[in-house]
Amino acid sequence: NATNALFLGGRGGTGKTQTVEDMLHAAGMSDGEGYYKITGSATPTGIYRLLFQNRKEILLFDDSDSALVDQEGRNLFKAASDTKKTRKISWMKGGKNFVAPEDYDEESDDDTLPRSFDFTGKIIFISNLPLNKLDPDGALRTRGYVINIDPTNEEIYDFMDKIADKINLDVNYPLSKKDRMEVVDILRARKIGDKTANLRSLVRGLNTRAGVELSGGSAEEWKKFVKMFA
Known about the structure:
Blueprint: E1 5-10, H1 16-26, E2 30-31, E3 34-39, H2 44-53, E4 58-62, H3 66-69, H4 71-80, E5 87-90, E6 98-99, E7 113-114, E8 116-119, E9 122-126, H5 131-134, E10 145-149, H6 153-163, H7 177-189, H8 199-214, H9 219-229
Parallel strand pairs: 1-9, 1-10, 2-3, 3-4, 4-9, 6-7
Antiparallel strand pairs: 5-8
């Protein structure tokens, strides 16, 4: 309740989405029950509709960077993330699908929307944009929390050490904590560019080892595949 909006930016593959959803699930929520998750691109009119349809809920935007590129979309997020408990959201452009608030029929099954409505929900926006592109004019920072997540490769690998034994595998094959740490060591030893390590490589690496061993493959085989493809 400390803020109406949280914007998370920075490099991808750092577990931003998983961390946020874990926290929401720990609070007893799930997608469609307590929060609504939107993945991918969204037009300004689409954003307006989503805000209206979920005006009392938490909206989780994931990988929807295009929604902030368009100025009309940014304006909607500015209005929705204001510090007031109740925020008025408006859409004054033309269109037969938009009607005056007093003419809007909640029971109607048509596609109309009111030109304005009260919004009491909250926004969580997860992006891979750097801070200067996520919030170029600083407007979002004056409304909600804007956090830039940009760890080094070593910080990513250190985090892998902590979570490797908690990752569920796609195949029904057991990997001990020692087995999983060996996968992290293989990933850590690779020569890759600065700030290119990501948690997805850990998931792929663990599943690669499990899959190779399940099919009777050797240690040499899974190590080769992890180095090349994880």
